[in-house]
Amino acid sequence: MTNNKYKILLVEDETNIRSMMTTMLGAADYQVIPAETCALAKTLFASYRPDLVLLDLGLPDMDGMRFLEAVRQESLTPIIVLSARSDERDKVLALDAGANDYVTKPFGSAELLARIRTTLRNYRHSADSGKLPSGRFQVGELVIDYDARQVFIQGEEIKLTQTEYNIVALLSEHCGKMMTYSAIIKGVWGYPNGGSIKNLQVNMANIRKKFGAKPGETWYITNELGVGYRMNGDNGE
Ligand code: CA
């Protein structure tokens, strides 16, 4: 059923990477629409209305960030940035401009496919609900009761402050997505004050302690230094 496949617009100027990814995504049953320039990507985006965009930032005719901004002016179509840039600032800029996630080159196919699945799932979820979260959230042994504003691990309630709860709830609503410091600060405190990053980190350290996570151990929340935090999905995605 060809017309049931997810359509992915792949914006990548390097021929080898583009054809390798086209093959890999095709094998994973996605319909791939390849584009090697921003200009072509804009045309194809308008005519195909893809379900997801994979976007290289270093493109010959324009910076991929311009395409990202152009798409965000008219739609919430999920965008995963393919970044060769190791600079955290670029990742933060892309996420704050509305990218849903990013992967850093070189990446493995398993990693990329996992990110695509998570991003599509989160997008469907947010499109379905579109309201304040209610009910329960569960990932692994972690359960959040949004109505009672309570958090449990292995059935034990974790006593959080209001701010700590708000941080955990916000990350869970965007489970699987890397959220920048400023996006979290804006969501929790209501203003993007750079000086609050320290405050956020202190709160996060307390949450980590209350969750019983040992230093260096993988837990429910991943920190990427200089970028932000991500609540991990079911498969540690
Ligand atoms: Ca490139």
Trace the largest sheet across and list its strands. Answer: 2-1-3-4-5
Pairing-aware structural class of the strands and helices?
A: alpha/beta
- β content, as a range? 15-25%
> What is the rounded distance between the termini?
28 Å
What Rg, in angstroms, do the CA atoms define?
Answer: 19 Å
Per DSSP, the total helix count is 8
Extract low-pLDDT stretches. Answer: none
Order of helices and strands: EHEHEHEHEHEEEEHEHHEE
What proportion of the residues is helical, as a percent range? 40-55%
- Distinct small molecules: calcium ion
* Tertiary shape: elongated
In round numbers, the mean pLDDT is 87
Number of E strands:
12
Largest sheet: 5 strands, parallel
Question: How are the SSEs placed, and which strands pair?
Answer:
Elements: E1 7-11, H1 15-27, E2 31-35, H2 38-48, E3 52-56, H3 64-74, E4 79-83, H4 88-96, E5 101-104, H5 109-129, E6 136-139, E7 142-145, E8 150-153, E9 156-158, H6 162-173, E10 179-180, H7 181-189, H8 197-210, E11 221-224, E12 228-231
Parallel strand pairs: 1-2, 1-3, 3-4, 4-5
Antiparallel strand pairs: 6-7, 7-8, 8-9, 10-12, 11-12
The structure holds calcium ion.
3D structure, described in words:
- There is one protein chain.
- The chain has helices spanning 15-27, 38-48, 64-74, 88-96, 109-129, 162-173, 181-189, 197-210; strands at 7-11, 31-35, 52-56, 79-83, 101-104, 136-139, 142-145, 150-153, 156-158, 179-180, 221-224, 228-231.
- The protein is an alpha/beta fold.
- The strands form 3 sheets. The protein has a 5-stranded parallel sheet with strand order 2-1-3-4-5, with helices on both faces. Strands 6-7-8-9 form a 4-stranded antiparallel sheet, with helices on one face. Strands 10-12-11 form a 3-stranded antiparallel sheet.
- Strand 8 (150-153) and strand 9 form a beta hairpin.
- Helix 2 runs parallel beside helix 3 (64-74).
- The mean pLDDT is 87.
- Residues 13-14, 56, 58-59 line the site of calcium ion.
- Calcium ion binds at residues 13-14, 56, 58-59.
